Amino acid sequence: DTGVSQDPRHKITKRGQNVTFRCDPISEHNRLYWYRQTLGQGPEFLTYFQNEAQLEKSRLLSDRFSAERPKGSFSTLEIQRTEQGDSAMYLCASSSAGHYGYTFGSGTRLTVV
Amino acid sequence: AQSVTQPDIHITVSEGASLELRCNYSYGATPYLFWYVQSPGQGLQLLLKYFSGDTLVQGIKGFEAEFKRSQSSFNLRKPSVHWSDAAEYFCAVGALLDPNYNQGGKLIFGQGTELSVKP
Predict the structure, then answer these.
(1) What average pLDDT does range A87-101 have in this prediction?
(2) How far apart are the first and last CA of chain A?
(3) CB pair distance less than 8 Å for A42 and B99
(4) How many other CB atoms are found less than 10 A from the CB of residue A100?
(5) How does residue B102 score in pLDDT terms, banded at 50, 70 and 90?
(6) Is the confidence at residue B82, as pLDDT, over 90?
(7) What is the pLDDT of residues B15-47, one digit of tens each?
(8) How far is CA A18 from CA A11, A24, A27, B19, B50, in A?
(9) For B5, phi and psi rounded to 5 degrees?
(10) Confidence check: pLDDT of A69 > 80
(11) How far is A78 from chain B (nearest CA, A)?
């Protein structure tokens, strides 16, 4: 097992375009989390899944953001009509239910120009 | 509301010197507390965690942290810093896990402390 994988590592997009990020968690982990980290700040919780169920969404997650985990394995985070304020590092993490032993991926850095 | 404060944005220490990074939390119940380290452009690595029991917890890379309920603090320490310890350090508090998973699971992070190490 190679840990939590995120793809792509970097994404540059023009304002108004849609982008999609992928996260592959550790295979035996049934919880998957998305966080956003802006420069000089700690990660902020966006949403999390237990298996395929999305259990909580932050108020930070506007209607332009959507996350899915269709088969309880990998997850995608889509941002529609990107804005410059969406520029950030998007981090994915996974864990087993009942444990706070998160494993983070290396993140996807989004730059909106 | 849950929150984490890391009062020091940036700290510089000499290699071989001791280190203490401060963390204060606000949480209504018994907190789950964590320290993570992040190297530039990388994800976060768990250094140590406190759930219950002994208030002095040992982590990886020679780090330890002490939970002080009376001070709502969870400071990270290392007796002798190495140049490779230069990184960003984040303290986090976790919501109490609900076995029915309707609450909890997420972490609230502080804004981080950047550590520089002088030769």
Answers:
(1) 85
(2) 36
(3) no
(4) 21
(5) very low
(6) yes
(7) 999 999 999 998 877 788 999 999 987 889 999
(8) 11, 20, 28, 44, 40
(9) -120, 125
(10) yes
(11) 20
Q: How many helices (H) and strands (E) does chain A have?
A: 0, 11
At A13-48, the pLDDT tens digits run 999 999 999 999 999 888 999 999 998 899 999 998
| Structure tokens, A39 | 């420069």
Are A40 and B92 inside 8 Å of each other by CB? no
**What residues of B are in the A interface, CB distance below 8 Å?**
4, 32, 34, 36, 41-46, 49, 51, 90, 92, 94, 97, 99, 101-102, 105-112
CB atoms within 10 A of CB A112: 19
Determine whether the interchain pair B106/A44 forms a contact, defined as Cβ–Cβ distance below 8 Å.
no
Please tell me whether residue B70 adopts helix, strand or coil conformation.
helix
Give the pLDDT confidence score for residue A98 in this predicted structure: 66
Report chain A's mean pLDDT, rounded to a whole number: 92
Q: How near does any CA of chain B get to the CA of A98, in Å?
A: 7
**Cis preceding linkage at A43, omega within 30:** no
- Measured CA to CA in angstroms, residue B33 lies from A97, B8, B43, B57 at distances of 17, 18, 18, 11
